[in-house]
Amino acid sequence: MSSFKPLPLATKISMPFWQALKEQSIQLQQCNSCDGWVFFPRNHCSHCLAHDLTWKPVSGDATLYTYTVARVPTMAEFKDESPQILAVVTLKEGVRMNTTLVGVQEKDIMVGMHLKPVFDQVDVKGNTLLRFTSVDSDLSVLEYQDPLANLARNSQGQVQVPITNLAALNALVTDEFSPWSEPLTVDQGLINGFADLSGDDYWIHTDPEKAAKESPFGTTIAHGSLVQVLQSRLPLTLPYEIVGFNTMVNYGSDRLRFPTPVPAGARIQSRARVKSVASTHKGLQLILEVHIHLVDNDRPSVINELVIFYR
Ligand SMILES: [Zn+2]
């Protein structure tokens, strides 16, 4: 399974449960006052209300309390798992959990059957969901399958992601930016050209003498919108190529900021990352977060979250 499916959100209270799953262990809270086991995670004992709970490892031995077979996907993202066997299981400690059964034939499922845990690694970060299977099954871990691993690459080494492969498209989403582009010098000539074109000839951009005396930057600075459009002269090295679409539309920007000015004569460079991917009625929406920086400056001069539609 891959991470484009909605995942449970760990809270401060439930974090130990999710953290343990990453380490292929199940931890439950037990009450120090009445010895009762507690699930879902909370601050107080669900038996005696004492605020005195300790996380403890348990085996995950369980029995099937009830189940249903969902033949229509509960959400479109779960189509590849159909039919899903949605189950409630009772752990040996007495608590019940909602889960899914994996690795069992529908005909072999019986209420009361003995179950064991399966640790399902759902993303590259190691996030793990708790499934269950029959005690007779060999299954104990479902390892993360990188949906990009077996895709073809183009002559530039970019992974070619078909527009129809939602799992692979979602695997492009990352916190890591691409390598820096080649730098470009933003000289006064470029700034003057943009002033003529746009009509914005404010002295802070176009009058080096006055700017030397009066500008807080001690020099003229480029228009924010100039630096933004210079992105086209800073070719990005993205690790992917989306293939199999008819049109690609630039739909504008979700967010555009100019946090740091670019003085005349400075060098700029850019990098980008895929911030999100979503399937919408307008087509596949990809948000490419592009940052332009002065060379060797940690703060961006432009933050532009480009909205691109493929269809
Ligand atoms: Zn208690």
UniProtKB/TrEMBL annotation:
Domain ChsH2 C-terminal OB-fold: 55-120
Domain MaoC-like: 182-279
Domain spans labelled ChsH2 rubredoxin-like zinc ribbon: 18-53
Gene3D superfamilies listed in its UniProt record: 6.10.30.10, Hotdog Thioesterase
Classification via SUPFAM superfamilies: Nucleic acid-binding proteins, Thioesterase/thiol ester dehydrase-isomerase
Alphabetized Pfam families for the sequence: MaoC_dehydratas, OB_ChsH2_C, zf-ChsH2
Stretches that traverse the bilayer: none
Name assigned to this protein: MaoC domain protein dehydratase
Native organism taxonomy: Bacteria, Pseudomonadati, Pseudomonadota, Gammaproteobacteria, Alteromonadales
